[in-house]
TrEMBL record:
Residues 3-145 form the NADPH-dependent FMN reductase-like domain. The keyword Oxidoreductase applies. This is NAD(P)H-dependent oxidoreductase. Keywords: Oxidoreductase. It comes from Micromonospora fulviviridis. GO terms for molecular function: oxidoreductase activity. It comes from the Bacteria. It is an enzyme of class 1 (oxidoreductase).
């Protein structure tokens, strides 16, 4: 079984990332080849990234970062749910990626983005960031429009086609996670 962490990538009041992430988890729960769990950044309050050395050289000794690292290390793959803020990802999500290094390696990811234009610019930015920590991002992604998939920009009501789009993305994440299994080493909590 592939263990997928569905990361709710915003901690902002009034966010929709948690609702969208639970929706992805519900769709993933129907699969026989994977399990999905919500990984909410609100449950992992991290400071702003301000380490003296990058985590590739010296892992953090902060307890909150070590707990976050253990959560990431325990998973095989990810789906990142991100809103688009000013053409990019939320700072909390960027910090969450930046605090770790080895824990991310060879674990594929899918992207679910949302915003006025589907959050596509945030998703493209996140692809670049994840590439630096050796997270291959699958081609298929889910883009949710605040106009079409949220009633009056508030209530999440995805179009009927979106579940199939999530399924396609999850198919790719699971396939990549299986293919990369031999490259992932069991992670010791540092």
């Amino acid at each position: 079984m592939i263990r997928i962490g569905v990361v709710a990538g915003s901690t902002r009041p009034g966010r929709k990332a948690d609702v969208v992430a639970r929706w992805v988890c519900d769709i993933a729960a129907k699969r026989p080849d994977a399990t999905a769990e919500l990984v909410d950044l609100k449950d992992h309050p991290l400071p702003h990234f301000d380490e003296m050395l990058p985590p590739s050289m010296a892992p953090s000794t902060r307890p909150a970062v070590r707990r976050w690292g253990a959560a990431v290390a325990a998973l095989d793959a990810f789906v990142f749910v991100t809103p688009e803020y000013n053409h990019s990802i939320p700072g909390a999500l960027k910090d969450a990626v930046d605090f770790l290094y080895q824990e991310w390696h060879h674990k594929p990811a899918g992207l679910v983005s949302y915003g006025v234009h589907g959050g596509t610019r945030a998703a493209e930015h996140l692809r670049l960031v994840l590439g630096q920590v050796s997270v291959p991002v699958v081609r298929s992604q889910v883009t949710l429009s605040l106009h079409a998939d949220f009633a009056q920009f508030r209530d999440f009501r995805p179009g009927p086609h979106q579940e199939a789009t999530v399924g396609t993305m999850l198919d790719e994440v699971v396939a990549w996670a299986g293919a990369l299994r031999g490259l992932r080493r069991p992670q010791a909590v540092r």
